[in-house]
Amino acid sequence: MKAEFKEVPVPPRWCMVCRGEIPPERVLRHSGTCSDECSAQHKRDMMNVKAGKICRLCRRPFRRPRRVTIEEASTPLPDGCVTGTQGGSETTATAKNA
Ligand SMILES: [Zn+2]
Ligand SMILES: [Zn+2]
After folding, report:
1. Which ligand is nearest to the CA of 31?
2. For residue 29, what pLDDT is reported?
3. Is 33's pLDDT higher than 90?
4. How far apart are CA 76 and CA 49, in angstroms?
5. pLDDT of residue 61
6. pLDDT value of residue 32
7. 83 alpha carbon to ligand 1 midpoint, in Å?
8. Ligand 1 center from residue 19 Cα (angstroms)
C-alpha cells in the first residue's frame, strides 16, 4: 500500500483573474493564475493597475461617470470602486428647471 504521489497536499488557491481553482501543479509553481491565458491577462491587468486605469480590487476599468442617468446607474459598481467616486461633492440631482 503506497501513498499516491499525486496526492500532494496543496492548499487550494484561486485564480486571481477568473476566480477559478488553480491546478495543483501551478500552485506549486507559485502561479497565481489557473492558466497561461489568465497569466497573460493578469500581466495586462497589473500594467493597467499601475497605470491607474483599472481598479486593483475588482479589475474593472475606472469610469468617470459625467452625467449618469438612472438607467445607466442601475448597474452599481462593487465596493472597490467606491473610492473613484468619493470626492465630497454631492451629485446635483436636485438641479431642475425652476
Ligand atoms: Zn483563471
Ligand atoms: Zn473596483
Report:
1. 1
2. 93
3. yes
4. 21
5. 87
6. 93
7. 26
8. 6
Specify the length of the chain in residues. 98
CA of 12 to the centre of ligand 2 (A): 25
Backbone angles phi, psi at 94, to 5 degrees: -85, -5
pLDDT digits (tens, 9 = 90+) for 41-90: 999 999 999 999 998 888 788 877 666 565 555 666 555 665 545 445 45
Q: Give the integer Cα–Cα distance in Å for 26 and 90.
A: 47
The pLDDT assigned to 18 comes to: 94
Neighbours of ion ligand 1 (CB under 5 A): 15, 17-18, 20, 34, 38
Cα 28 from Cα 83, distance rounded (Å): 35
Report the separation in Å between the CA atom of 54 and the middle of ligand 2, taken as the mean of its atom positions.
Answer: 8
Domains of the chain, by residue range, sit at 10-69
* The dihedral formed by the CA atoms of 58, 63, 69 and 71, expressed in degrees to the nearest 10: -30
